[in-house]
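Hey,

Quick one before I head out. I ran the complex with protoporphyrin IX containing FE overnight. Inputs first:
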Amino acid sequence: MSAQKSILYPLVAVLVLILIPVIGVKLGLSYFFAVVVPYAAFIIFFGGILCKVINWARSPVPFRITTTCGQEKSFDWVKHNKFDNPFTNGQVAVRMALEVLCFRSLFRNLKMELRDGPKLSYGSAKWLWLGALAFHWSFFIILLRHMRFFAQPVPGFVDMLQNVDGFFELGLPQLFVTDAVIVAALTYLFLRRVVVPQLRYISLPSDYFPLFLLFGLVLSGIGMRYFFRVDIVKVKELAMSLVTLKPTVPEGIGALFYVHLFMLSVLFAYFPFSKLTHMAGVFLSPTRNLANNSRYKRHVNPWDYPVKVHTYEEYEEEFREKMKEVGLPVEKE
Amino acid sequence: MADVPKPEELAKIDHTPPETPWMETPTVFKDGMWCYGAKPQNLEAVGMPNPREWSPKDEDWKLPDDWKEIVLDGMKDRLGRFRSFKLFMDICVRCGACADKCHYFIGSGDPKNMPVLRAELLRSVYRKNFTLGGKLFKKVAGARDLTMDVFKEWWYYFFQCSECRRCSVFCPYGIDTAEITMMGRELINLLGCNIDWIQAPVANCYRTGNHLGIQPHAYVSMIEFFCDEIEDVTGVRVNPTFNRKGAEILFITPSGDVFADPGTYTAMGYLMLFHYLESMGLDITWSTYASEGGNFGFFTSHEMAKRLNAKMYAEAKRLGVKWILGGECGHMWRVVHQYMDTFNGPPDFLEEPVSPITGTKFEHAKSTKMVHICEFTADLIRHNKLKLDPSRNDNLVVTYHDSCNPSRGMGFFEEPRYIIKNVCNNFYEMPSNTIREETFCCGSGAGLNAGENLELRMRGGFPRANAVKHVHEKHGVNMLACICAIDRAALPTLMDYWVPDVEVTGVHELVGNALILDGEKKRTTDLRGEPLPGMEDIEDEDL
Ligand code: HEM
Ligand code: SF4
Ligand code: SF4
């Protein structure tokens, strides 16, 4: 599929998805969009991820294929790189934490350049790492901040997050740093896909689709907060009714809210069927979550089966005379 | 065989992808970039399917009628057996971090050599047949049918991946394209479409115990020839033993070291070291049955890897040794370190390895019971057990190439460096992004060291060679040390092509040169018969 189509299809899809709740609410389907869709999306999300993880876990890990990124543990006098080449499960836990929280591997990223000479060089290239980290962390913090809609009283850490996030005290309502960061990060992630020829070449519609969805989600959220205020009290009422499983839909929450909720629902429902499962998958990755101690402790392959081998007896049978000629010991004269 | 363009020509590499999307860009087999197909007798020798005369250039690959079913069933089977495979099919976000990490992409500019696209070649078929999204949305979901063209495309690109795992270091989820290539090759082998450069060594190794098909008597006489050479250089006669029951240690090294320069000098290094240690209590034997450290089965399928690897423990058991010492080899050590115990263990008939000279327990190898010779030697040096004269290597300015497999499948960096620094006075590292876990492949790994694909090898080896060139120009490096037999076979060609003044050596050749044997004569040449530093005139007098 051409790059244009790969961008256009998901873009159109997301635009259509934006229109659906707008029209739906006009047609009086607010209960459907405020209650049925989010519930369904949640069920698909959790059920789907669970199925996915179970499905992955059902395939065993027959071999210990750690990718080692530093010196292994050997002698006392050789410095062991514990977290890039873990030997114990505790060290693996640190390696995984570094991967998941800091994107350790992406931090290694380099950019190859070929100049006249010919001369290859590998410059540091931390932008992807920074952009990815900025996106994921702000997404995570924004999610946590949303807890204020789902709990009464609002938990202390949410208040705290909110204060830290709004520390610039700019504008009214106060600008959240994460709001600015996530828009910038998403823009960067999108632009690099479009601008870098190799990335444009490998990108599928399913790479653009989640980006557009997230744009829709984030921009509708920002729109509600800073530009087209919706009735927050009513939103909280709805949210609380959803979490307490006694859904009631207050009248007169702005349409933009329905767009926001629908984007989130689509994202959640789409999640288990897409590359977004990397969130769960990264924890199961055998090259990262195994200790490199296979010579120290035997790893068992659950489906191991006997294979046909060429035995020494067969070997000697074929070469006995030649072996004797050069004085090699043989089992049978 | 196609002529390889001149280095200046080859280095004009365009990394911008073509206009047409990759799924719509047909794969054209370019001469010099692919290897000959497996010969029927080599498939038959190990009972592999579909033996026949064929060439990858043929339109008709003579596959069974139900080939598609075979491949898809094979895929299903492997998705169920390897979590790595299933997971790596699902979670790639196409962030592109791996794209310019592959030496084949760097050297060829072919976008399908970006690890992510190499994986997509298979992933697209996975989506079509095993995911809901792929079934529903087909091309929009990045899915495509398995066709003969697709199968041939797999073949072309899975034999342009040396399973080096460099991409895996950089991937945020550790997606290892080598693992995907291994699956792809297993599927290819279900239809008997291996390359002969892998299949012939597999067949040989199965029958004669080594890739090169050296029969026992020839193996012994080759090593005896090395003993003569050692005697010429040092005046000392070394006396290795073979297939000797009751020895304490079994020594296994790649047969490449016995067969071709410069690996042969490394083999001489081992022989000298063992001789030196004999009087200190080393009791070691070689084997003609287990006369191969390497494992081309590993480039074929897990099953074939296991079948060939079985000889190591079987021979250790038959001879009644206590533990196994392994020579310098790359993929051999990937298999020994990460697979052997699982494949063919537990070796409960062996004992936890202990150095008979220093008493050091190799605790980290206590289950597999096999120790790398560089671990063994580094420990000896650490305990001052070796009399060394590093100045004998003074005509060398050395750099060290980390082989892919011990680097990223083991984490073996310090021991070989420690040895080199003790036996050589001039050592310089290549730039940091080209060594250790970020090391570049020789370009010929995973069975791609053939003659007919020379252009591929020179392209794939370009990043490695370019880094050597850098230290050659900056520090006058003239010797590239490594601990891999494929490197020793492949790198000299690569150096001739890109950096003509640099030669290639194993680490134990350097040890052999520096090692002061009891009762040796005054040495005037190194193991290669070249004059030692300051001995150039003596050499002349002799003439
Ligand atoms: C354990 C949690 C997670 C980890 C460790 C993780 C890690 C990563 C990394 C390293 C990347 C590659 C860099 C990039 O392309 O931006 C990435 C990409 C991405 N992640 Fe996550 N992620 C996690 C959870 C999530 C969640 C919950 C979402 C939900 C929206 C998400 C959405 C994305 C998207 C959309 C991309 C692709 C960005 C692009 O197209 O360039 N991730 N993730
Ligand atoms: S680095 Fe990993 S996630 Fe990113 S494109 Fe490559 S394989 Fe996919
Ligand atoms: S394993 Fe090595 S050769 Fe294969 S795709 Fe990755 S970087 Fe390239």
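The radius of gyration of chain B is 24 Å.

Talk tomorrow,
K.
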